[in-house]
Amino acid sequence: MDTMRDRFAPVVSRMLDEDPRVAVVLAEIGAAGFQEAARRHPERVINVGIREQLMIGTAAGLALTGLRPVVHTFASFLVERPFEQVKLDLGHQDTGAVLVSAAASFDWPAGGFTHMAPGDVAILDTLDGWTVHVPGHPDEAETLLHHAVAAGDDKVYVRLSVQSNRAGRVIDGQHLRTVRGGRSGVVVAVGPMLDAVLDATEGLDVTVLYATTVRPFDAAGLRRATEAAGTDVVLVEPYLAGTSTAAVNEALSDVPHRVLGLGVGRRELRRYGTIEEHVAAHGLDPAALRERIGGFTGAGRAAAAG
């Protein structure tokens, strides 16, 4: 199966052909995928070199002229390194762009901590007005890229990963999707965490919701799910643990509830290893998830008793 990033350049290259507003801004990474598009549209495919701050500033300038810039590099170089420009050139100037990342939290362990960005969504959460998409499959990535580019002049972040669920699902770029029903709690699986959550909760009496758009957070969808399943909520996110707990607390602020945020831990893992080893070390494999989800919701004890 191809990866989300494999889809990125072909999909956006077609957008360049079809929509004269679309522009692409790169900082060397990913440039090879746009060589043909750059020959066809040299004025709308811009590679600024290894200058990530300039990349964001260039995108903001293009947006001020009426274009819809799509900006791409690794998450650590797209959100963390040029954060001041994201905050000022896009946020303060109220200009829109589509930031499309690669490498996710630890997709390239051999690259070391400089190429890891488990805090990217949490960092963007300090700014107002961002839409954040976290696809869990290449088909969903393609869908969400189209949503992002078509979103007027909004500020949108699309988080791509080589980690993927086995199958894509029908998504709309807004709402939580109910994948499994239950009565002993709600588990929100974000993007590529869905398969692990489904494996972990097999036989447990919990509702599983699937999120591929985490900002704005679908508060109404969560509230509907908790009416039947109760207000114990577990978040399983492929980035910094607890990133969306504030969104859940706000959604359920008028009712008693409990929230457990699972995800990537804050401690740096200095033995880089493989993706699978990182997943296990952060407790995001099915066995570890089952223990923590079952223990928190009580569904694990009920399943064992049954």
From TrEMBL:
Gene3D superfamilies in alphabetical order: 3.40.50.920, 3.40.50.970
InterPro entries: PDH/Transketolase, THDP-binding, Transketo_C/PFOR_II, Transketolase-like_Pyr-bd, Transketolase_C
Source taxon at top rank: Bacteria
Residue ranges of domain Transketolase-like pyrimidine-binding in the record: 2-167
GO MF annotation list: magnesium ion binding
Matches recorded under PANTHER family: PYRUVATE DEHYDROGENASE E1 COMPONENT (PTHR43825), TRANSKETOLASE-LIKE PYRIMIDINE-BINDING DOMAIN-CONTAINING PROTEIN (PTHR43825:SF1)
Descriptive protein name: Transketolase
Native source species: Streptomyces actinomycinicus
